[in-house]
Structure formats: structure tokens, C-alpha cells
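Forgive a beginner's question, but would it be possible to get a protein, spelled out as residues, together with the matching C-alpha cells, please?
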Amino acid sequence: MPLPIGKMSFTLTNHRGVTVTPSEWIGRPTMVFFGFTWCPDVCPTTLSDISLWLQDLGPDADRMNIFLVSVDPERDTPQVLADYLSNFDPRITGLTGSPAEIKRAADEFRATFEKVPREDDYTMDHTAGVFLFRADGRFGGIIDYHEDRHVALLKIQRLLKAAS
């Protein structure tokens, strides 16, 4: 199980260049996905799904924190994240940082990632679920990759209802 948000201690930089700590997330339900901008399928699919969930939620989605934490800080600068995220719902915030801080964040979420060499390049294997947290910072569940859209929405709505 991931640590409660209030017990997490990493510091990252968002795609606007602002330093972010998880303690700032308390008070709003939070959705977190680990991924990277060079991902060929899982990440763009998941970010498209998140964008559709937010659209389906309507104005209620404005009450949430939504983050993509990059597992590829070598390539995913704040500007690269900003450019990439311009293709998805604007409520999704990209986070990056030093390799040590990304590892700390992943460890606290109990997420995994690994750099996998390829011929002249590399890719990243990573946890593909979307982490959900209640407004008080307690873990609220995971939306699995390719989970039915209706089930995913019910999980998010349950978080929002508990925060009302």
C-alpha cells in the first residue's frame, strides 16, 4: 500500500517550473499516474482515459489534484512535460525532478520503474495503474490499466463524494 500523502516527503517540479510537495495536496482528492513522455502506448492511452474521466465528471473534476509523475527525468524536463501535456486535459499537472526524488516518490507510492536499454536508446518499464487518494491523504484505491470506464468513474466519484 502507498504511504498516506501526508507521510510522503519528496519534492518535485511541476511542468510550470514550480516546486511541489505532496503535503500541498491534502484537502483535495488526488489522482497520480507514473509515466513518461516517450512512452509509446500505456501513457498516452492512460492520459487520454484520464482526460475522458475528467470530462465525464464535469465541474466536479475541478475539485481534484491530477498528476503525471515522470519516471524519465533525463528527458522529461518541465518544458517537455508542458508540451506533451498540452495534448490532454489541462487539469493534469506534470511532475519531474532529480532521479533520486523520482525514486523517492515512486517508493512512497509503492510504484516501480526501470530503465530498459534498446539498440540506440532506452524505454522505461513502470507501474501502469492510476493511484487514488482521499482528500485527507489516505489511499483510496487504484484504477487498473484498461479498467472499464464506468468502474473508473465510480471509483473517482466515490472519492469526490467523500470529500463533499
Observations:
- The first strand starts at residue 12 and ends at 14.
- The beta strands are 12-14, 19-20, 30-35, 65-70, 92-96, 113-117, 122-126, 130-133, 139-143.
- The two ends are 25 Å apart (CA to CA).
- Helices lie at 42-57, 78-85, 99-109, 149-163.
